[in-house]
Amino acid sequence: MVHEESALEKRLQQWCCNRFLLGVQQVLEVVLNMKTISREEAIALYKQYNDSESLFRHALSVEAVMRRFAVELHENPEFWAIVGILHDIDYGLYPAEHLKHAPRMLEDAGISSDVIHAVVSHGWGICSEVEPVHIMEKVLYTIDELTGLVTATALMRPSKSVMDLSVSSVKKKWKTKGFSAGVDRDLIAKGAILLNMELDKVIELTIDGMRSVAKEIGLG
Ligand SMILES: [Fe+2]
Description:
mainly alpha, 0% strand, Hypothetical protein af1432, 10 helices, single chain, 2 domains, binds fe (ii) ion
């Protein structure tokens, strides 16, 4: 009986030890994944497949907004920024097959699976069946289209700048259905609900993020 108990104890200890090691391994994987690619490397990878200046400005806009939201939500801005840069990596070469080629391109470059999942989930319901789950994915899903509306609204202003752009100006254009008709307002509203954030706050943070790179995106 004593012998049986100690064998059971041993197995329990081994199980606990294995669980602990697995936990450590998972944490290490996350930390290491977050450091596998620098901003410069992400931009170089993006440019390997895209040569359009306007698409690159969009990538920089999304990067800046991802950073802004990460700060707001006390997350990792550097990691979120990388996702922002890479999110449309296959659009330049395959606009009609958007997000179908992104996983291969990113896997070939050794990009971690969490980045790939985030990239693919931003087209949820449009060109992807992958649902945004992580908070970072929900932000990307929400703000991708919104940066387009903010850009178009800013370009209508005499200043052609985001620096003096208000939330109410964007909301006014939001209600004008013929304006930037390609921007899916319902998707953005759905994203705000997913984020449990007021639409005005989402717009405010998006404008704020884009202001931080106003010159680089041609809206200074
Ligand atoms: Fe995009």
